[in-house]
Design brief:
8 helices; Serine Threonine Protein Phosphatase 5, Tetratricopeptide repeat; mainly alpha; TPR-like_helical_dom_sf; signal
């Protein structure tokens, strides 16, 4: 009888040990899965951010080619064939960067928007390191807004926004224009997020004009950003 008693205790003891080990293994698995899930979420966010940056750069680089193909589609030239996005094949102009910038501004003042666009595109394409490139990207954004091509405008504005420092009053102004492009594309969430970005600039002591702040507050209320 006593032997049976001790045998029973040993069995229950082993069961308890096994159960404890199973719990440890299960907990380890749960923690490992949670760790992997966290890493996956971080990786997903990183990929999304990179995709957005690539989209912006591709839009900026290929904007001209996209427009030309779009016009061909509208005119029925391409028939049922799918459009291909190609960079415009142009040789380097004889004019230097400063001349292209001044010619572009002159054409813009005379409302020769296509000519102005080409001058600024040449400046961005052939003199990408020149100090006038951020302004050229800004004016390309303005030209596309006039043409109501808000996706292309947003892409060029984004390049200019990245280039200007927070001490330059244009930084916040361009940020507001990016938000306006999003709103024009019915992307209220993205527009509101960019308004929040301007608020962060303000909190960091960036140089922001009163006109920009007033418009930001107007859009914030109009698009009900507080509810998003």
């Amino acid at each position: 009888m006593r032997c049976l008693y001790y045998a029973t205790l040993m069995v229950f003891g082993l069961v308890n040990v096994v159960s404890a080990e199973e719990e440890k293994v299960e907990q380890s698995v749960v923690e490992y899965v949670q760790e992997l899930t966290g890493k996956l979420d971080t990786l997903t966010q990183t990929i999304e951010l990179l995709e957005k940056r690539i989209e912006i750069l591709e839009s900026a680089c290929h904007a001209r080619g996209v427009e030309e193909n779009s016009k061909k589609i509208e005119n029925g030239v391409m028939g049922s064939q799918p459009a291909s996005v190609e960079k415009p094949k142009r040789s380097k102009p004889s004019a230097g960067a400063d001349r292209l910038s001044s010619d572009g501004l002159s054409a813009l003042q005379h409302k020769n928007f296509d000519e102005a666009e080409q001058k600024f595109l040449d400046l961005v394409q052939f003199y990408p390191e020149h100090s006038a490139v951020p302004d050229a990207c800004y004016w390309l954004g303005e030209i596309h807004v006039i043409k109501k091509q808000y996706a292309h405008a947003q892409a060029y504005y984004a390049l200019a926004y990245k280039a200007f420092p927070e001490t330059n009053v244009k930084k916040a102004e361009i940020g507001l224009k990016i938000a306006e492009c999003y709103f024009s594309l019915n992307k209220n969430k993205e527009g509101c997020l960019f308004l929040k970005e301007i608020m962060k600039l303000q909190q960091r002591g960036a140089n922001i004009s009163n006109a920009t702040l007033q418009l930001m507050q107007k859009y914030w209320a109009l698009h009900k950003c507080a509810d998003l």
